[in-house]
């Protein structure tokens, strides 16, 4: 009986460790997040380092972004037109409300140092 209890205790420690590692791996590569609404609410579009997105007219995300999160050491460059065209701005930190860029973003690139 003691042996079964010891095996169960060991298994629970192993399972907790792997669950925590799985959570870390799932979110580790998220460098930039664009949100549909201000204050980081609504639908979220997660971006990995060195990822670019371009929204065509009529796609959900085109001209819908209202807030962003940017991981430390990363930057998000947003553009008013698709295919990284038109005026642009670089964000290097979180912004609850993107000001003049509210509902104006049609493409973006996420970059990270290293």
UniProtKB/TrEMBL annotation:
<keyword id="KW-0732">Signal</keyword>
<feature type="domain" description="Beta/gamma crystallin 'Greek key'">
    <location>
        <begin position="30"/>
        <end position="72"/>
    </location>
</feature>
<dbReference type="InterPro" id="IPR001064">
    <property type="entry name" value="Beta/gamma_crystallin"/>
</dbReference>
<feature type="signal peptide">
    <location>
        <begin position="1"/>
        <end position="21"/>
    </location>
</feature>
<comment type="similarity">
    <text>Belongs to the beta/gamma-crystallin family.</text>
</comment>
<dbReference type="InterPro" id="IPR011024">
    <property type="entry name" value="G_crystallin-like"/>
</dbReference>
<keyword id="KW-0677">Repeat</keyword>
<dbReference type="Pfam" id="PF03995">
    <property type="entry name" value="Inhibitor_I36"/>
</dbReference>
<protein>
    <recommendedName>
        <fullName>Beta/gamma crystallin 'Greek key' domain-containing protein</fullName>
    </recommendedName>
</protein>
């Amino acid at each position: 009986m003691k042996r079964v209890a010891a095996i169960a205790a060991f298994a629970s420690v192993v399972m907790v460790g792997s669950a925590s590692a799985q959570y870390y791996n799932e979110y580790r590569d998220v460098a930039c997040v664009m949100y549909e609404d201000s204050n980081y609410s609504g639908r979220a579009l997660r971006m990995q380092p060195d990822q670019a997105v371009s929204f065509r007219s009529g796609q959900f995300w085109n001209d819908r972004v209202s807030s962003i999160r940017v991981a430390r050491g990363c930057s998000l460059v947003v553009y008013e037109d698709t295919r990284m065209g038109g005026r642009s701005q670089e964000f290097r930190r979180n912004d609850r409300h993107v000001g003049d860029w509210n509902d104006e973003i049609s493409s973006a690139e996420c970059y990270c140092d290293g």
